[in-house]
């Protein structure tokens, strides 16, 4: 990511605007333009349909986090509705044609990491649980230590990219041609709410098939919803696993890792930064 020169962003100084600028500064000597930066998109703009503002775009411009954004993040009404992060992202994204709910999950993560770093710095201290014994301890992550997965077609799989930002994956057993799209923020929210509802009403969990319902666009060119539901519910396990592995390879993302050594059992492992509740609400 790179910080953008704000004088260039607002067009710089022009002779015919000097008087107006001087007048404005005199009226409010503390007025300034919030800095912005360009954030690298893990997707590099792939996975978006041609009509999307980020189609084939490798970066997105956001502004630095402000006190107003902190108000949004601490709004009890927005937190209760699960909308705090969405509203904050709407605020920081410069291009208002880009809706946070339409962003691919990996691109959303990149924006969240960059926004958090602009607000509270690159160092993020949080509590983590040891994968081996469960003992909790404190770990410091450096948000600059990012690794990008730009997604790509696996060499050992038959996958074809389409002009609409989707991918057609050939199934090994059934020989079906399954067209999938990358999940976005709207899909992520729907899956989360559906899982909560099923848990509340003590219904059988169907996380995998629900995910397939969101990501599968067509099968052998057919888009009829009933036909797709039938395939999803009867897809052989070997094909299902193949589809999950293909999607994992194709799905772009950004991750921050930190080497961890458990003080209780000495287990060592690289841990991924958790998006806990304190990611945007640090003790200050």
Word description of this protein:
This protein is of the alpha+beta class and 284 residues long. The protein folds into two domains: 122 residues, no CATH class; 92 residues, rbstp2171. The protein is 36% helix and 21% strand. It contains ten helices and twelve strands. The strands form four sheets. The chain has a four-stranded antiparallel sheet. α3 packs antiparallel against α5. It is globular and about 65 Å long.
Describe the structure using short key phrases.
rbstp2171; 4-stranded antiparallel β-sheet; 10 helices; 12 strands; 21% strand
Please write out the topology.
Blueprint: E1 2-4, H1 6-9, H2 18-27, E2 36-40, E3 59-63, H3 67-73, H4 76-81, H5 84-92, H6 105-120, E4 123-129, E5 136-142, E6 146-149, E7 159-161, E8 167-170, E9 177-180, H7 185-200, H8 207-215, E10 216-219, H9 225-234, H10 237-250, E11 253-261, E12 268-272
Helix pairs in contact: 3-5
Count of discrete alpha- or pi-helical segments spanning 4 or more residues: 10
Q: Report the structural category.
A: alpha+beta
Spatial order of the strands in the main sheet?
7-8-9-10
- Principal-axis shape equals globular
Radius of gyration: 22 Å
The amount of beta strand, in percent, is 15-25%
| Counted beta strands | 12
Q: What percentage of residues falls in helices of 4 or more residues?
A: 25-40%
Distance between the termini: 26 Å
Mean of pLDDT: 88
How many strands, which pairing sense, and closed or not: the largest β-sheet?
4 strands, antiparallel
